[in-house]
Amino acid sequence: MINDARPVRTGRCLCGEVRFDLMASHKLFVSCQCRDCRHVSGGAPAAILVVDRRDLRLTAGEEQLGSFGVRAESGRLVERQFCATCGTQMFEILEMDPEIRLVKAGTLSDQDGLEVDVTVWQQSEPSWWASLATSDVFERHFSDDYHGRNPSKDAG
Ligand SMILES: [Zn+2]
Ligand SMILES: [Zn+2]
Fold first, then answer.
1. How far is the CA of 83 from the centre of ligand 1 (A)?
2. Could you give the CA distance from residue 156 to residue 66 in angstroms, rounded to a whole number?
3. Backbone angles phi, psi at 94, to 5 degrees
4. pLDDT band per the 50, 70, 90 thresholds, residue 156
5. Among the bound ligands, the one closest to the CA of 123
6. Domain count, the chain
7. CATH number for the domain that contains residue 71
8. Any idea which ligand is nearest the CA of 74?
9. How far away, in angstroms, is 126 Cα from ligand 1 center?
10. Is the dihedral angle over the CA atoms 140, 142, 145, 146 positive or is it negative?
11. How far is the centre of ligand 2, averaged over its atoms, from the C-alpha of 148 (Å)?
12. How far apart are the C-alpha atoms of 108 and 12, rounded to whole Å?
């Protein structure tokens, strides 16, 4: 068999040292609101593509991958992999299911056509999450004269 398979998607970390191909479509797109995912992201829920282990191919920077293991509430180990240079969260390996890999959707070069299938750990959603729906919105950075909703800044 000639190995001429082309990736369906490609991705990389922020600095570009770690690169990967996805050789098949994901099985599921999960938004995870759990405390651990929010903690490592700095606040946002994790955007996770569930893929078969064999369909994730590292094409550069494998030696750059750092790893941090955390026990989930289930007691099983969750290994979180990230670029040791730029800190981008990239993959997760689950003790519970070693045949799959979790790939962070934000690392994909092209995210067109992706739609979240399911949200999990909604009970861990922080109270401020709902305020996104009513927050002020700018298409890009906020304008220089924007003082937000903080009354202390409106006075001047
Ligand atoms: Zn990087
Ligand atoms: Zn999570």
1. 5
2. 48
3. -105, 125
4. very low
5. 2
6. 1
7. 2.170.150.70
8. 2
9. 28
10. positive
11. 31
12. 7
Tens digit of each residue's pLDDT (9 = 90 or more) over 89-116: 999 999 999 999 999 999 999 999 999 9
CA of 108 to the centre of ligand 2 (A): 19
pTM of the model: 0.89
How many A from CA of 72 to the centre of ligand 2?
9
Q: Which ligand is nearest to the CA of 40?
A: 2
Domain extent, residue 73, equals 9-124
With a cut of 90, say whether residue 41 has pLDDT above it. yes
What ligand is nearest to the CA atom of residue 14?
1
Task: Examine residue 44 and state whether it is found in any structural domain, yes or no.
Answer: yes
- Give the torsion sign (CA, 113, 90, 120, 27): positive
Side by side, the strands of the sheet bearing 9-12 are 9-12, 19-22, 56-60
Burial class (CB in 10 A: 0-12, 13-18, 19+), 82: buried
Instruction: List the shell of residues around ion ligand 2, using CB closer than 5 Å.
Output: 32, 34, 37
